[in-house]
Amino acid sequence: MTGAVTHTVSTAVICFELTGQISHILPMMVAVILANMVAQGLQPSLYDSIIQVKKLPYLPELALGHIR
Asked: With a threshold of 0.85, does the pTM exceed it?
């Protein structure tokens, strides 16, 4: 779950360091990568949806060609 929320692989590394079991690193990495793929498919994210529902101000996405 934390891998999907944070969109990082570091959560698997943190879990590996907490357990100290090298045999757990591969299943954790696979689970985090799959969670990231599922989270990427479910757009907009939960946080973006809450911002839109509450009509809070947020920065718009910029196109890469417009950055100077």
From this structure: no
